[in-house]
Amino acid sequence: xxxxxxxxxxxxxxxxxxxxxxxxxxxxxxxxxxxxxxxxxxxxxxxxxxxxxxxxxxxxxxxxxxxxxxxxxxxxxxxxxxxxxxxxxxxxxxxxxxxxxxxxxxxxxxxxxxxxxxxxxxxxxxxxxxxxxxxxxxxxxxxxxxxxxxxxxxxxxxxxxxxxxxxxxxxxxxxxxxxxxxxxxxxxxxxxxxxxxxxxxxxxxxxxxxxxxxxxxxxxxxxxxxxxxxxxxxxxxxxxxxxxxxxxxxxxxx
Length: 254
Known about the structure:
The chain is an alpha/beta fold.
């Protein structure tokens, strides 16, 4: 393989039951964003839980994307009981991602987390989550509108303010920009070694970076994959991730 080969980006799969059958799946908009906005070759890493071969996954990865999902991180991973049993969980994905995150950072593999992926990174570094942000005093309701139309679910609804001098401010060139909001959970206690990069108007952390990471290591609570090619701050995030993935290709092929 030559130095000009396209980067390979692994997307962590969800383990889902569909029509009474089991599937390892990743949302189409994440796959499309990797293919078009990074750009890179997207490959889905199956959610095999404790059976996931982390070393082999890292060996074929030039970057890792932790996508959003309908499920939540199991609260046992941050020493809480399940608040609402009606909400979906995905222990198989937890078993993949919570092991993969630290190994990826240690190996210098570029890492981008989105929504659930953002929350996974916080939990992997010892942080905790609010299981229902909207029930916390002074916090807004960050859940999506009750609408069947995706254009309404993913509409930009509130600004985020970037931390001056931070990585996200540098990448986007913005001190503030509008984002969508489709999450019920959010960061409570920030994980050790994580640095806040942006906040919502109610003070909720909306972006973090992993301090001391050897490569790109950023996560956001909103969904920058949505309409990414037409939303400059969103595209800037994927392009910066892509630059890091291409740098890893060059390093590995040297």
